[in-house]
Amino acid sequence: MSRWLSDYMVYLLIMSPFMLPSGIGQIRFHDTCAEADEFFEGKEFKKKREACRKLRRVDVRIPPSDVKGDRSKSLLFDACRLAKSLELLGEGEKWEKIFQAWLDIVTYAAAQCKWNDHAEKLSQGGELLTHVWLLMAHFGMTDQFQISQGYVRAKLLAI
After folding, report:
1. CA-to-CA distance for 3 and 115, rounded, in angstroms?
2. How many Cβ atoms from other residues are within 10 Å of residue 140's Cβ?
3. Which of 18, 93, 150, 154 has a 20 to 30 Å separation from 28 between CA atoms?
4. How far apart are CA 139 and CA 132, in angstroms?
5. How far apart are CA 155 and CA 148, in angstroms?
6. Spatial separation of the C-alpha atoms in residues 95 and 78, rounded to whole Å
7. How far is CA 135 from CA 23, 39, 46, 79, in A?
8. Can you give the pTM of this predicted structure?
9. Rg of the chain over CA atoms, in angstroms?
10. pLDDT tens for the chain, residues 1 to 159
11. 147, β-bridge pairs
């Protein structure tokens, strides 16, 4: 499930970036891809596990800003650090942290997307992000919907 959500969020970043919070996401994505290309340059891997082993051998004691400054917005090094810290956790605790991180990412992205972008995607069958947004709205967890006092009804606010 975690891999699927990761792939889905990259799909949105490439195919429907307007649905994701605006900001540095595109820059981070391109910088991370460029750093991964450089890191794996000239290496052929028969299996993904071999590439993962190479990433696990990255020395995470030295902050990336000490090596390359603050120009790059790549997350490759941060991902290596995160993977190493997750390896130290017990199986249950590790998956609970991963679950909570994805829950936070997906709900944040759903809430940040504009209502008219959700409506456009819904008219085309909808995205997972839109369905998450609708569930959040149903339970009163978004800024676009508020519950009126005295009556239990949803009121759509124009933004």
Report:
1. 27
2. 10
3. 93
4. 11
5. 7
6. 18
7. 25, 41, 42, 30
8. 0.68
9. 19
10. 778 888 888 888 888 888 887 777 778 888 888 888 888 888 888 888 888 888 888 888 877 777 776 776 778 888 888 888 888 899 889 888 888 888 888 888 888 888 888 888 888 888 888 999 888 888 887 765 544 554 444 455 554
11. 154
Amino acid sitting at position 151: Y
Structure tokens at 72: 């790059």
Q: Which two tokens stand for residue 37?
A: 């290309």
Q: Cα separation of 65 and 122, whole Å?
A: 42
Nearest Cα neighbor of 117 from 29, 1, 15 is: 15
Tokens coding 41:
């340059």
N residues, the chain: 159
DSSP 25-84: HHHHHHHHHHHHHHHTTT---SSHHHHHHHHHTS--SS-HHHHHTTS----HHHHHHHHH
C-alpha span between 129 and 70 (Å, rounded): 32
